[in-house]
Write a sequence for this structure.
């Protein structure tokens, strides 16, 4: 069974390194667990829960360029099983990624979930679209109540994707994740404080009754 992500990533030089490092036979026998590279509900749930990702493009001089993209959770929208889109906000106006994508439409994305030590890699081709606030696409992609100027919509046609192992991913938590994790603890602490106050009151009444029969 073809595993398209590895089919794309494995070049002659990659095969040569595998030979040098003794892993060639392992990957020659590797069989993927899916035929089409269509996003399933698992990938969709993961993507829509992210508030950032890293995107690599390639310049006309051959240099790779990696840039961080961020926004409100879910700003990277899953349109269908093979298409993603996001609102591209105004930044420092260097336009390196945009320039690269105009010349070479191929990009690679890495989406990280540091809390659960999980990452998803995606190969895609891009379309740079103008912002038409009245279009159905804008209605699905442009975030509500997010104070940033959208300069374009980036449409991503997924070519292949792959999940990575958690090795070497340092576990980190956002402020919102910490608040959510501590919510049960805080509720328990409030309950214990209320219980402690009640018991102190009952003890004080008991002592008062003993002192004044």
């Amino acid at each position: 069974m073809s595993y398209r992500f590895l089919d794309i990533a494995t070049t002659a030089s990659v095969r040569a390194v595998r030979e040098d490092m003794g892993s060639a036979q392992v990957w020659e026998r590797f069989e993927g667990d899916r035929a089409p590279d269509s996003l399933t509900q698992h990938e969709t749930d993961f993507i829509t829960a992210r508030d950032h990702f890293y995107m690599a493009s390639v310049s006309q001089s051959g240099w790779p360029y990696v840039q961080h993209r961020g926004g409100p959770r879910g700003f990277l929208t899953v349109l269908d099983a093979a298409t993603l889109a996001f609102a591209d906000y105004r930044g420092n106006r260097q336009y390196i990624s945009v320039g690269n994508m105009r010349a070479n439409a191929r990009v690679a994305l890495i989406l990280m979930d540091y809390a659960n030590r999980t990452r998803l890699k995606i190969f895609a081709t891009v379309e740079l679209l103008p912002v038409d606030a009245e279009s159905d696409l804008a209605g699905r992609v442009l975030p509500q109540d997010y104070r940033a100027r959208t300069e374009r919509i980036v449409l991503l046609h997924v070519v292949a994707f792959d999940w990575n192992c958690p090795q070497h991913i340092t576990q980190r938590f956002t402020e919102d994740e910490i608040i959510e994790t501590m919510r049960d603890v805080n509720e328990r602490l409030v309950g214990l404080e209320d219980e402690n106050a009640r018991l102190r009151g009952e003890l004080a009444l008991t002592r008062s009754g003993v002192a004044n029969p």
About this structure: DSSP finds seven helices and seven strands in the chain. The beta strands are 52-58, 64-70, 77-80, 83-89, 106-113, 118-129, 150-164. The first strand starts at residue 52 and ends at 58.
